Structure formats: structure tokens, C-alpha cells
Amino acid sequence: MAPPWELRRRGLKDSLRHDQRVKEAIRKNLRELIAEEAIITSDGQKRVRIPLRYLEQYRFKYGQPQEGVGQGPGQPGDLLGRQDGDGNGPGDGLAGDQPGELTYEVEVPLDELTRMMLEDLALPWLEEKPERQVTTITHRHTDVRRRGSLANLDKRRTLLANIKRNASRGVAEVGHLHDDDLRFKVWDEHEQKHANAAVYMLMDRSGSMTTSKKYVAKSFFFWMVRFLRLKYQHVETVFIAHDTEAQVVPEQDFFALSNSGGTRCSSAYQVALEHLQQQHPASRWNIYLFHFSDGDNLPHDNAVCKTLVQDLLGQCNMVGYGEIRYKDDASFYGWMGQTPYMISSLQHTLEEIQHPRLLSVTITHKDELYQVLQTFLQPQENAHV
Amino acid sequence: MFEARVAELEALAQQHGLDFFPTSFEVVPHDIMTEVAAYGLPTRARHWSYGKVYQSQRLYGTMGLSKIYEIVLNSNPCLAFLLDTNPEIANLLVAAHVFGHVDFFKNNLLFAPTNRNMINDAIAHALRIDGYIERYGLETVEHLMDIGFALDRHIDPHQGVIRQPYPQRQVVEKERSPQPYDDLFHTPSPSVTYEVVGEHIPPHPEHDLLWFLSTYARLESWQQDVLQIIREESYYFYPQFLTKILNEGWASYWHAELFHQYNGVSPEEMIEFARLHASVVNPGGRLSLNPYYLGYSILVDIEKRWDALHAAGESPLTGRQKLFEVRRTEDDISFLRNYLTLELMEKLGLFAYGRPCTHPPGQHCTQCEHIVITSREQEAVLAALLAPRYNYGVPRIVIRDVLNNTLYLEHLDRATTFLDRRFAAQTLSYIAELWKHPVYLLTGDESGREVSLTGRSD
After folding, report:
1. Residues of chain B found within 8 Å of residue A94, distances taken between Cβ atoms
2. What is the C-alpha to C-alpha distance for residues B443 and B450, in angstroms, rounded to an integer?
3. Is the ipTM of this complex over 0.95?
4. Which residues of B touch A74 (CB under 8 A)?
């Protein structure tokens, strides 16, 4: 029996389906992917490689690495090589008789990944301001034509045209589709104007910001920058790093900072305040300020911070504060001359302000990053002016 | 020219006692070859996992990293695929090689129960599954196939593909054989006893998970059908899995043997043949042994040994006759156990490799990532060769009991091996999804302590 046509050449169909599943898998696992080290550290590269644990084909399999058989000279005990990485089974070049052990990576353009992750987010409370405009480009279907690419076929209108033509001959039904019935959607680029925006990114670089905490902060800013560049054509970014002193630093230095020194958060707020008053007056700019710290601030500085943040709120559309606090740090806050039972941090001080546009979050694990992005970049009432 | 020479090789093979199904060759382009190789059959039910294999194989092929020379299907009549870009001499070698394979399919005992009509049955399977996709949606059917493929190696070749359900619960009369001293108790002879059968499900530990679930889980008939399709195709591939070394060795032995006899090739072609043959039976890498080479070397060794025994009058069989016996009765496990001698092992320089550390697998030390030669002892090398071939390459999991709808599975070798936890947990929830009630698996952890894993249907 000769196979029917729809059964032939299925390889292409199934590999397209596989690609589709890869995309779904990425979408479903954004939460984990967003904190994936391989992506954050892929500085400057246009494409990122994502390990696809998510498309594994599960089955019962052995947990211990299998032994194998090789050949050639050598005594028992002679070193032949090393296993790579996780120690789950031999790496490349070693015989694997286990079923379905294709370890798999996909390459995705970074922009596409960012779009998938951040497409629903927007700068909140964006307001109309005079002078320079922030623009985004969207596509809109604006017209219907008789010629076009089949991908843009407007099925409903095509069917209606078909019924109409048949009705003119007395039978109002679908059938005898003719080239003249085809209708295509045509799109136009549509420029959407937003107000000017400047985003201030403040990061604590003091000694208490351990590598893993700094990683969380940097990841956040990494995605923040990606998001801004992708979604808005013209947004100004300002990077400020601080320990006891603060300074404005270029972007590439910001992401490569090492840490040392104590913490005086007010220094950063002071620098930001001065900078924005000079460069981005609130009368003409939408200003956003994000600050990440472990909250381990000099105790007497908290009051100063409170005043400065109140001043900043007067100028900014939104102030976001993220405090990275790992569980094992809890005892640490007792050190600051407070009673050990009362965990005191910058966050507590700031929360006293109680302003709707001061958003503050606590991060205890890098997996929470996506949630934090969602909290800070929740589109609000007058988001699209 | 090509067809005439294939016919000459075919006649030569028959003269030497090869006994094969009528074989037809299809010469196809590279991407068709890749596609058949990815699916394992020319037409098969669609599933994204084949697309994944197809994609990477096509890429490797286009980049010139790997080349599939031949695909031969176990069917009657037999269908074999050759690559259209190969030089004629390469395809002649492959044709001779194919006659060896088809003889093996036809005569090896493990293949006796296989479905020789699988090419057409798989087309019917594909059509049925396409119908299900249309009715129930791609994702639903795909997910069920994911579950089926997760369990497709857990079959029971001793029971066969076609099975009846376990006996219904009933009381059967059994004639009691006369015992000594019956006369003392005035027992009439012959007397009858009563026995209850079918009280327990399963009556014995059940290895065929796919059969059990498709028969006893509460599934719709299309779901049962999908699982049965996967199971049937798995039975078809099982003998090929278990005879990889012997089958490839046998085919390589025969393409070499036929070309030694065949005088229809030019000297230039003969040199090209020798180069190709050397690459087919190349030893492989330091850490990976080429199965073609291993099988071929053992067969050549057997022939030599039995020719010597025959000459000395110690064996009624000549070397060649012995080879035909081996191809009929052995699978890879018995083939290696019976014929991979210590002398040959030393000649081939085989060793077993693994981790040097002696602590339990759960812990870590500085040497954990090292790979060293662990042994050159015959038993150790054999064990390392056989382990991945045992039980279709998967851990032995059986269904032990059903109590209050709960399914109890048992991992049989839990004292000496352990499972990958993440994979086991996911697979258990697959089973629970079919069973629709909790599923437990008794297994062991890294240090051999018994643990029970659970799968729940959400």
C-alpha cells in the first residue's frame, strides 16, 4: 500500500512542531530563565544559548553514571578524561547506550527572548510632557486588498466575498472559491508617541552585597535596560553606584563593578536628586528611579534617606526599591545596635513614607526576579498617554 | 550496470548459504535517508520527538559530520535504502551488507515473532493517529504519546505482543493426582480440588507496563489504541536493539566475504572498497567501541577457532557452519558471554572504565569527575558491555499490586542500582495520569536504602 500524500515527508512538519514546542517551553519557563546565568553573562552577544531541560523526554533511567568499555593501552587506574559538569552521565565523546539522551540547547536571539519575557510590561504612570517625545512603533491592519501575501489572508472577508459572488448567481453558499474572492489584510507602521522618560538605576556596591546578591541586582538592571531599549526608542538611562560615596558611572562599568566599603544609601539618593534636577527636570521628564540594596544601611543614615526619598517622590513618576535579603542573613541585622528581634533595614524606614508611587519589594531568591519586574513595571491607569 | 552487479552479488550470497527475503533497493536523496533514519520506518505516526532527531541529523549530514550509508528494514519483502550521492562501489558494498542483515532478520530466532508487515502497519498506525489528532487535538494526542514513549521500553518479550487479559476471578476444579497413603484417609481416587484463579491483579509481577495500563487503566478506546500502537512498534524494534553487535558483525563479515569472492569490480574499485570496509569496521575511539568492529572481530575469531577444532577432529562443525549456528541462536548478551574470550579481549585491548572513587554515589570527592580504566578483568569488561543491553536498556520496573485502586510498582534491582529521581518522579506522574489514582514506586536511594516515590494525577 502506497502511503497517502499527507503521510509523506513528515520530518519537516515534526521539526516545525518541535521548534514550536521549544518556544512554548521558553515561555513557560520565563521565571527560571530570567535568572539564568548563561543569559545574563552573555554580554553583547546577539543570540543566547538556552539549555533545554524543559523539553526532556522523561522515562525511568539510571541515576548513576554507567560504566563503559574502551580500548587501547593503559593500566587500571590510568586517567582517561573528565566528565563534564553535573556528573549526570558521561559527557561528549563517551559512549552512551542510554535511550534518548540528547542533551539539547537552542539558540534564541536575545531581542526575541526579551520580547517574550517583557511584552506585557510598561513604565507605569507615564505622563504627557512637552518637548521631546518617546516613540514606539506598532503595526496595525489598516486596509483590505485583493492582492497580497497568503500569510495575510483575511479568511472571514474572503468567505463573505465568496458567498456574495455565489449569491449573485442565485446560490448563497460557500464554494467554488475563485481568485477574485481572496481578500488580504494590509498593515501600516504606526508611530505611537510617549512622553520623555529618564530611568535612574541605583545599585549598592558595598562589602555586604555578596556575589549572589549583586547578581540579583545586576540581573534586574540587565533586563531593565533590555526592556527599555526594546520597548521605547528614546529613554535616557543613568547608572549610579554607591557604597558610602556615590557616583554616576558608565553602563559597562556599572555591570562590572566589584564591591567594597560600607553602606550609606543617602549618598546615592543625593547624587540622583542633584543629577535629575540638572539634567531631567520633572517639568519635562518622566523620571523613574530603581534602587537595589541589601538594606544593610548605616543606622543613622536611614532618616536622611527617608527625607531624600520623599524629595525624590516629589520629582519622580515612581521610585522602586528592592531589598535583597537572603534567609541566612536574618541574624545580621541584629548587629546594627538594634534589638535582635527587631529586624531593621532601610526598607522598614522607607515603608513609613506610605506613598502610592513608592514600590518596595523584598527578594529572597533569584527566582523571584520575574515577579519583581512585574511589580515594578505594571502598566498603570494612564500608562499610554 | 549497478543493478546487474547487485544481482550478481545476490546470487553469490545465495551460493554461500545466505537465506534472505526478496530484497528491493531504493536509491534516495540525503534528506529522505535522514527522514527514514529519524523515524526508524519510512512512514510513522507523527510526533515532535522525531522532528528533533531529524533536525539534528539533517544538520550534521549537511555539515558533513555524519553520513547514513544504509537503512534496511526488517520486513518481507525487505526494503533497503541507499544514498544517491554515494559512489557505485559504496552502494555495492552496502548491498552486500544488506544481504547479511536480511539473512539475519529471517533466520535469527529472536526475530521469529516480529511483525514482517510493520512497514504497512505503521502506515495504518499513522493514519489512525492522524484521525485522533483531528478529533481530539494535537496537544492531547501528543501528550498521550509522550507518556507512551516514556514507557515504551517496559515491555515483556517473553509474553509477546498479543496477550489476553488475566483470567477472571473464578473457582476451577482440578484433578488431584493420587498421593501415597490416600487409602488411609479413604480418599477416593481420582479426587478433585478447588482452586481460585484470577483473584489478584496482577497475578504475577507485571513487566509489560504499557500492556497493563492500556488494558486495566480506565481509558477511552482511542487512548488504548495509541498506547497499543506505541507498544507494538516497540516490540518490533526490540530484537534489533538486542542484536546490534551480532547483526552488524554478521553483515560486515558478509560484505567482506562476498567481495573477496566477487570478480566484477575493477582494481580501482577494489581499493575504494578496502578503504570503505576499513572505515566500517574501524575500532572506534578510546572510550567508544564500534559495535561493527566488535561483532566482526568476534565472528572472525569464531571461524578461525572452529576451523582449528574441526581440523583436529574436536568439532563436527566447520568454522563457517559454526557461524551459521551463532547467527541463528544468539543475541548480543549470549554472543558476548559465549564468544568474547579473554584472549580476544586482550588482543583487542579492551578495558572497562568508570569513576575511580569508591564512596557511595551520592557523595562527592575531588576524583568524582575523573574517568579512569577500572579493570581489564574479563568479567568486569563483560559486565560493562552487557549492562546497557540488559532489559531494553532501562531499569526493571514491575507492577506488583493494586490495592484500593492504588498502583504499586517495584524497581527490581533497587539494591544495586538507583534511579534518576527527577525523571522517575515525572514518569510516575505520567503513569498516575493514565491510572487516575495514586501510584507508588518502591525503589532505593543512592546508598541502597529503600524509598517510596509517589506519582499523583492532578
Report:
1. 287-288, 371
2. 6
3. no
4. 351, 373
